[in-house]
Design brief:
Layout (H helix, E strand, L loop, with lengths): L2 E6 L9 E6 L2 H11 L7 E5 L4 E3 L12 E3 L2 E7 L2 E8 L2 E6 L8 E2 L4 E2 L7 H14 L8 E3 L1
Antiparallel strand pairs: 1-2, 1-3, 3-6, 4-5, 6-7, 7-8, 8-11, 9-10
Helix pairs in contact: 1-2
């Protein structure tokens, strides 16, 4: 099993700067989180390769009904020492982690994480390792409506 993470890089010299990583083993999750903690790294959009694709009936990526898209929406970030994660799929409404009440809000161009949704990076790593091996919403963490 594997997932691919793609994230923007805030670079004043390159407005289109981004990075990408395929995660195929649990230790790769740790590498990914190290890279997401680097200065300028934005939240990663994560697509699990072992989940189904669904027809894009809303036309998010082209004419409605002509393109297949992932059946899930997952994003992860490291911000000010906290790990953040969002998740949605056909069985689960869009949600974030229930984290440390002291964790700050984190807003980006692609995804917003509310205050209190940040967890220690080790907790995020455990959740992403579970997602990697199960392709399902992690049950090792507590979720809240976004």
């Amino acid at each position: 099993m594997s997932f691919t993470a793609v994230w923007p890089i805030n670079d004043e010299h390159d407005a289109d700067a981004a990075d990408e990583m395929t995660v195929g083993a649990p230790e790769d999750v740790d590498t990914l989180l190290t890279r997401l903690a680097e200065p300028g790294a934005g939240p990663a959009v994560i697509e699990h390769q072992d989940r189904e694709l669904i027809v894009d009936t809303e036309g998010l990526l082209g004419a409605p009904g002509t393109t297949e898209i992932p059946d899930h929406d997952v994003a992860a970030a490291i911000h000010q020492g906290f790990g953040y994660l969002t998740y949605a799929d056909p069985e689960h409404d869009y949600s974030t982690l229930r984290g440390d009440p002291a964790s700050p809000e984190y807003r980006s161009e692609y995804v917003d994480f509310p205050a209190g949704a940040g967890v220690p990076p080790e907790v995020l790593a455990t959740a992403l390792k579970e997602f990697l091996t199960t392709a399902a919403r992690p049950s090792s963490v507590t979720w809240q409506a976004a």
